[in-house]
Amino acid sequence: MTNLINFAHRGASAYCPENTMSSFVRALELGASGIETDVQMTKDGHLVLIHDESLERTTGTKALVKDLTWEEIQTLDAGSWFHADFADERLPSLEQLLELTCDKGIIVNIELKNGFIQYPELEEKVIEMIKRYGMVDRTIISSFNHYSLRECHQIAPDIRTGILYGEGLYEPWVYAKGIGADALHAYMYALTPELVAEAAKHGVAYHPFTVNEESMMKALIQAGVAGIITDYPDRLAQLLSE
């Protein structure tokens, strides 16, 4: 049971502003063995960690990530929306997260946010950064854009990929194998213990999201999932230690 990956969703996002260095550092303090994050690209090609295509919700700026440069994005306050204690928190780069995790044995789940906006060469840039930090064997690339996952597999078949989806797939391990994916990042209600067991027989792991209630965590641990994505890594860490 203790080998289950405790993925902190956008870091410890229940306690800190999501996808910030404060959130990532706090996740490690709370016992996370993995960090889940979202990557997009600035106007000048920098890889920035943010969930929404728009900057409005987390910085108050009515602009899209793709329309601002890295320098412009670094002037934005990405913490005050969450709490005044995090005023002047900046949006981090993928490089900053990999610097934090590369020597700590942490698994990093990088979600490519290219469902609505197609960032040129996003796959190549992310993979190059993963390789630069020696994180090939400790990274999972996920996306709701399964064409993008297929491209990642073709570029770097040694980097694991995870299919994000929200509803029931028929024999999802067959679909995963068809695009070279290693994991199923399913909405937590889109799986059953039987599906988890059958996928495992075919070498495909389940990493459901976003699981915050302890009762559901316990059920998924019992079902045999390989990882759980949660806003509360401390809750999951406590259950795994018991």
From TrEMBL:
Positions of the GP-PDE domain: 4-240
GO biological process terms, semicolon-separated: lipid metabolic process
Superkingdom, taxonomy of origin: Bacteria
Pfam families, A to Z: GDPD
SUPFAM superfamilies: PLC-like phosphodiesterases
InterPro entries per the UniProt record, alphabetical: GP_PDE_dom, PLC-like_Pdiesterase_TIM-brl
Record-level Gene Ontology MF annotations: phosphoric diester hydrolase activity
PROSITE patterns, per database record: GP_PDE
Family matches, as PANTHER family: GLYCEROPHOSPHODIESTER PHOSPHODIESTERASE, CYTOPLASMIC (PTHR46211:SF1), GLYCEROPHOSPHORYL DIESTER PHOSPHODIESTERASE (PTHR46211)
Full protein name: Glycerophosphodiester phosphodiesterase
Organism of this sequence: Paenibacillus lutimineralis
